[in-house]
Structure formats: structure tokens, C-alpha cells
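seq as requested:
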Amino acid sequence: MTPLRKLRRDQITALKNWRVWWHLGMADVRNRFAKSFVGPAWILLNLAMWVGGMGIIYGTLFQRPLDTYLPYLTIGFVCWGFLSQTIIDGGNAFVFAEGYIKQFTYPKQIYVLRVIVNASVPFAIGVVIFFIVTLAMGQRIGMGMLWALPGLALVLIVAYLHAFIMAYASARFRDLPHGMTALLQVLMFVTPIFFTVDTLKKSGLDFVYKYNPLYYLIELMRYPLTELKPAPVEVYVTAVLYMLIAALVALFIANRLDRRIVYIL
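C-alpha cells:
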């Protein structure tokens, strides 16, 4: 069996064993808040305090009306948190599952899907907070928000590919998660999350978002949820192209390392 055919078979098998990665992912969420009095509600409280504090400061700094800026900031930060968590946690997917990988014959992709489940819980809570903030600010909620669903599908696929690439590459290069953490901390402040694209255009800094794929991934959901209509065509086109490139990179890396993961770990 060729390596690519084996990867395809393993991916299908992993999806069929959804109970395994769902249980592992939810167990990670429970363990994160083990013996905590508040539990997973800390996700809600942390995000609420962060958006409340940073929203007022940056909204005033950029002279943006809070009734539109707070929902914009909330959903942008929630999407960023999901994407960054899948990248960073993806880097440890195989390392933390070393014992499972060496003892069980489950497809390794199960441990990548585990990362997606773990990151999806705070993401889902964050989306709920976005709707609460939107209503509190007196903004409309309409059917146009449903355009966020195809965007969500694309974001989930790309997040999986990010975690997939990081899982294989970080098993070989253990410093990669640390480097990506530092890089993402910088990217968060140059990606249109705290500020809008219009602010960058006025300052002649268009390149900051035009060549940043994470901006387009965030905009897939943020634009429909805040503007109640589909995102511009270039957002979908760029996101799909980036997804295809990420898929090719994932196949290349997995093809080179899949059979060696057990020995690398």
C-alpha cells in the first residue's frame, strides 16, 4: 500500500472512530478545569473581562462606536483564539499522545481531531458571548448571519490542516511549537482584530492584511456575523486557495513522516 493510500485509509478510519477523539477532546477540557469551583465557565468569564476591558480601551483609542466595535472585537478575538489554539496544541498532539500511539493501533489522525474538539469548546462559548454582546449593544441579529456557516466549515477544515501539519512537523522538530507561539503573539497585534481594515488603509498599511491568510479566515465568519451578508468574494477565494495549499503541505509532510512517527517520538 502506498503512503498516500494509507493516509487516506487512516483518515477515513479516524473519522469513523469519532467517539474516541470526541471523548479524548472532552476529557482534555474537563482536566483543564479539574477541581475548579467555576469550571469551564472560566472561559466565559475570561473572555467577557478581556473584551470588556480591551474593547473600551481600543474602541476609544481608534475612535470607534462601542455598539459596533465590541461585537467586531469579540468575534474577531474568538476566531483568532480558535485558530491559534489549534496551531499551538496541534504541535503537541503526537508528543502528548506518545503513550497511546505506541500502545494502540488507532490512526494517528485521531489525536489531531482531539485537538479540534478541545479548541471547539471555548470557540463555541465565545460565539455565544458574541451574540450576547451583539444584543447588549442593540445590534441586529438576522438571517444574513447564516452566511457564517460555510465560512465556519472552511475554518474548521483549515484548523484541522494546521493542527495536522504541526503535529507531524513538531514531532520531528520539538522547538516548532515554541517558535509558533512567539510568532502568533506578534501576528495577533498585526492582524485586523483590534483595529479595522479601514484603519490600515488610511495609514497606507494595506499589506498587513492583504498577505495575511489568518485575516481571511477570520473574515469568513466575522463579516457575515457583523454585516449580516456574505463576505466579499476575494475572502472566499483566498481562503479556499489557502486551504488547498495547506492540504498539499499536509500531504507532503505526512507522506515523509507518517511511518517514522513512532521512532521519532
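The two ends are 23 Å apart (CA to CA).
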